[in-house]
Amino acid sequence: MSDLAELIGVTKVTVSRALNTPELVSSETLERVRAAVQQTGYTPDLIAGSLASNRSRLIVALIPAIAGSVFQETVAALTAELAAAGYQLLLGQSGYDESREDALLDAIVGRRPAGIVLTGVVHSEHAKQKLKASGIPVVETWDITRAPLDMLVGFSHQKVGEAAARYLRERGARRPAIVTPGDHRAQVRAQAFVKAFDTARDIPVVSVESPANLGDGRRALRRLLDAHPDIDAVYCGADIMALGVLMEARHRGLSIPGQLKVIGYGDQNFAVDTDPPLTTIRIDGTRIGKLAASMLVEKIETGAGKQRKVDVGFTLVERETA
């Protein structure tokens, strides 16, 4: 910054204002500073800046998976909303293992971000204690609990499972099965489905490691039909598994939904274009991201927030597979 000031012939304070609060300097000075920055390739030291101001402009979000996941809408909304407020988003991929989340939080908290966004509400005691002691604003997302760590934007996975069970039963299913990822939230949905379907018959379940893929869905239906050829419906804990189920059903010559009804979870961008279009449960990931960003920024900048907990609910999207 001193080099820039000398090059332009102004004070360091003027350069700082041009970079951080451009509305406080004249347009002529601002253009000179920007030209010098481009000429020299200068990049502000954000760590030094946050130490000097005791304020970071960095928000960290931990999500289980990035590629091809239901969390993409949330990440996109978080990025846009935070950028509009002058904050940058850094992503960490935590997987579905508490120990991985613990390791990331150990690395993150010491760097003093302005805020943290977490996926889910199930964390180790180590993580809970570290986050509470840090004093960093935290928003938990994509789940619900009566006792959030700080702030929360989510929905009930139990109610998702119950809604899927009611819908399939209303559509005439009597011998359902479940294919699901093995992570905690997916298991809550599956267990709620079993309880809500309310049948004396055991509901077969095939559970696979998270994150699940298309092939998992095909193999799961193969296993189910080999052991339970009379099943007439499948609840899938992820849309990508539902796509695999549809492919395997077609391979076996089963009509959808005549012989086999299928319902997914997530309403990912391909769901409307499957053949037939997939009945599924939609989560408004964009709204989750926008709310998480606004709640964080409000608490960071005012020390308090108007909202502590928001249940965004979900929507059962009726298409042609069930």
Automatic annotation (TrEMBL):
Keywords: DNA-binding, Transcription, Transcription regulation. InterPro entries: HTH_LacI (IPR000843), LacI/GalR-like_sensor (IPR046335), Lambda_DNA-bd_dom_sf (IPR010982), Peripla_BP_I (IPR028082). Residues 1-53 form the HTH lacI-type domain. Pfam families: LacI (PF00356), Peripla_BP_3 (PF13377). The keyword Transferase does not apply. PROSITE patterns: HTH_LACI_2. SUPFAM superfamilies: lambda repressor-like DNA-binding domains (SSF47413), Periplasmic binding protein-like I (SSF53822). One of its GO terms (molecular function) is DNA-binding transcription factor activity. SMART domains: HTH_LACI (SM00354). The keyword Transcription regulation applies. PANTHER family: LACI-RELATED TRANSCRIPTIONAL REPRESSOR (PTHR30146), TRANSCRIPTIONAL REGULATOR (PTHR30146:SF33). This is Substrate-binding domain-containing protein. It comes from Trinickia violacea.
